[in-house]
């Protein structure tokens, strides 16, 4: 299905509509739903405001969109920047998303992701198998049986065909067979934190507490010195994907799978529900949120491939950026330099100004991107790639500074120490690695999680590393060196 179909639907059009038809439909609907037509009808006026926001957003996305389904004569004029770049690892990304949706019982979304994985890899046995289980659970037995027959056929095919050499990606791993784990850091606390994947962890500026979120819909505040729960903030059981915290440590903002952005007062331990409705402008789940406390500007990135810049003082949207390339997977922001970067299943990275969204610098890596982090001083950008490498870019020169090799699976999360010297990476391979940035060498490998590492943070005093995982635990690590 065309990824822009939802926007055509808002305008009442087919995806084959021309740009002229898009413009005509927009003008007609904007006139129909203009709030000024309902001055004396408060209920209709509220509805009109919601509709006009959807209409404006759809038009903003579609007015510059050039579909790939062009005539032969037109195709030569279409910029490659408007086309989705499918990486060889994309099926695994969609499969992983499907698993996460299934874990949160969002079965229709899970089926859609497994179907995307299968479309990209027709022999993806695990995707057929998982999709079949969900279809059977939902009562779609004919469709489920079809998937199970495919699984049986693929297993038979694997048995009868000559054994193939294990596929190796076009990159080299450093030899990790002799690595000594937990040399300088030790796990001193394991917290049975959540019922589902720990999606995000963020520490307070004063080192006193940290916050965790999960796909179980809960937010927990923990005391850093003891690892004890201070409070549990319960929303409406909607899975939470991302956290960001104000520099005052008082306001927490969450990006959620129900497409909303919610605000929480941590002093009063309650939701600021009055703001949430103003920030429900994405068409699909929120992938990430990041806050610039200096200007009170919020950046949100969604699975609808939209990046939005919000003025929180006014409660208004400053900028809406439609990413016409591959799916967005991550977001990072640097307050000191005033810029942010989003990553996705393409190689291109664009660093943008926070206030305007304008591209300041464009970088090109070796594969799709799964995680990002800026060093606090803004000098370095760490890029966790799908090919299991971490690239370090020097933003002062615009050149690649180092490539860090050691993880055996996707780099799911990255964070820098406050002194800008150490990068900490977490991976689907269940390990956490500490790297010296200047020299590009591995310092230590922390191994204790039973499943993929999904969240990382380090306290500002650099004494405690906090990691979260798909195994539903949080682990607290302290240095052995006094």
Q: Count of helices?
A: 9
CATH class of the largest domain: Mainly Beta
CATH architecture of the largest domain: 7 Propeller
CATH superfamily label of the largest domain: YVTN repeat-like/Quinoprotein amine dehydrogenase
Count of DSSP strands: 28
First-residue to last-residue Cα separation: 57 Å
Question: What percent of residues adopt helix (DSSP H or I)?
Answer: 10-25%
Keywords:
repeat, single chain, 3 domains, WD repeat, TPR repeat, J_dom_sf, Serine Threonine Protein Phosphatase 5, Tetratricopeptide repeat, alpha+beta, four-stranded antiparallel beta sheet, 28 strands, WD40_repeat_dom_sf, Helix Hairpins, 9 helices, Methylamine Dehydrogenase, Chain H, 482 residues
In short:
The protein has 482 residues and is α+β, with helices and mostly antiparallel strands. It is built from nine helices and 28 strands.
Description:
There is one protein chain. The protein has three domains: 5-70, Helix Hairpins (Orthogonal Bundle), CATH 1.10.287.110; 90-160, Tetratricopeptide repeat domain (Serine Threonine Protein Phosphatase 5, Tetratricopeptide repeat, Alpha Horseshoe), CATH 1.25.40; 185-479, Methylamine Dehydrogenase, Chain H, CATH 2.130.10.10. 23% of the residues lie in helices and 35% in strands. It is built from nine helices and 28 strands. The strands form seven sheets. Strands 1-28-27-26 form a four-stranded antiparallel sheet, with no helix packed on it. A four-stranded antiparallel sheet has the order 2-3-4-5, with no helix packed on it. The termini are far apart. The model is unreliable at 66-88 and 163-178 (pLDDT under 50). WD repeats lie at residues 191-232, 233-274, 279-320, 369-403, 404-445, 446-482. InterPro entries: DnaJ_domain (IPR001623), J_dom_sf (IPR036869), TPR-like_helical_dom_sf (IPR011990), TPR_rpt (IPR019734), WD40/YVTN_repeat-like_dom_sf (IPR015943), WD40_PAC1 (IPR020472), WD40_repeat_CS (IPR019775), WD40_repeat_dom_sf (IPR036322). Residues 6-77 form the J domain. It comes from Hyella patelloides LEGE 07179.
């Amino acid at each position: 299905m065309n990824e822009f179909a939802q926007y055509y639907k808002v305008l009442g059009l087919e995806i084959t509509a021309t740009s002229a038809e898009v413009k005509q439909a927009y003008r007609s609907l904007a006139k129909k739903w203009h709030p000024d037509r309902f001055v004396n009808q408060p209920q209709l006026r509220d509805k009109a405001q919601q509709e006009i926001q959807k209409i404006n957003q759809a038009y903003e996305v579609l007015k510059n969109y050039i579909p790939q389904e062009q005539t032969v004569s037109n195709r030569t004029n279409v910029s490659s920047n408007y086309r989705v770049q499918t990486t060889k690892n994309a099926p695994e990304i969609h499969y992983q998303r499907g698993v996460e949706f299934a874990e949160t019982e969002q079965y229709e979304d899970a089926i859609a992701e497994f179907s995307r994985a299968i479309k990209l890899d027709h022999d993806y046995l695990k995707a057929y198998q998982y999709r079949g289980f969900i279809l059977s659970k939902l009562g779609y037995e004919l469709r489920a049986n079809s998937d199970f027959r495919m699984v049986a056929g693929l297993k038979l095919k694997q048995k009868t065909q000559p054994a193939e050499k294990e596929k190796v990606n076009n990159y080299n791993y450093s030899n990790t067979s002799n690595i000594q784990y937990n040399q300088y850091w030790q796990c001193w606390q394991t917290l049975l934190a959540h019922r589902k994947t720990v999606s995000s962890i963020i520490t307070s500026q004063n080192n006193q507490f940290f916050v965790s979120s999960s796909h179980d819909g809960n937010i927990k505040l923990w005391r850093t010195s003891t690892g004890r729960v201070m409070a549990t903030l319960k929303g409406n059981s909607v899975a939470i994907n991302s956290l960001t915290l104000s520099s005052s440590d008082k306001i927490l903002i969450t990006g959620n799978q129900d497409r909303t952005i919610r605000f929480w007062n941590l002093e009063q331990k309650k939701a600021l529900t009055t703001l949430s409705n103003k920030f429900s402008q994405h068409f699909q789940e929120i992938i990430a949120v990041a806050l610039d406390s200096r200007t009170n500007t919020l950046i949100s990135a969604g699975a609808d491939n939209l990046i939005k810049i919000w003025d929180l003082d006014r409660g208004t949207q400053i900028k809406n950026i439609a990413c016409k390339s591959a799916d967005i997977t991550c977001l990072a922001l640097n307050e000191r330099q005033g810029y942010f970067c989003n990553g996705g299943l393409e190689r291109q990275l664009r660093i943008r100004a926070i206030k305007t969204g304008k591209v300041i610098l464009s970088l090109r890596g070796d594969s799709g991107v799964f995680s990002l982090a800026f060093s606090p001083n803004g000098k370095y950008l760490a890029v966790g790639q799908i090919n299991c490498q971490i690239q370090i870019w020097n933003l002062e020169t615009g050149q690649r500074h180092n490539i860090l090799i050691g993880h055996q699976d996707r780099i799911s999360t990255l964070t820098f120490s406050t002194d800008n010297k150490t990068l900490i990476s977490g991976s689907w391979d269940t390990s956490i690695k500490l790297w010296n940035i200047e020299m590009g060498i591995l310092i230590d490998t922390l191994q204790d999680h039973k499943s993929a590492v999904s969240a990382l943070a380090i306290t500002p005093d650099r004494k405690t590393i906090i990691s979260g995982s798909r195994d539903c635990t949080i682990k607290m690590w302290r240095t052995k060196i006094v």
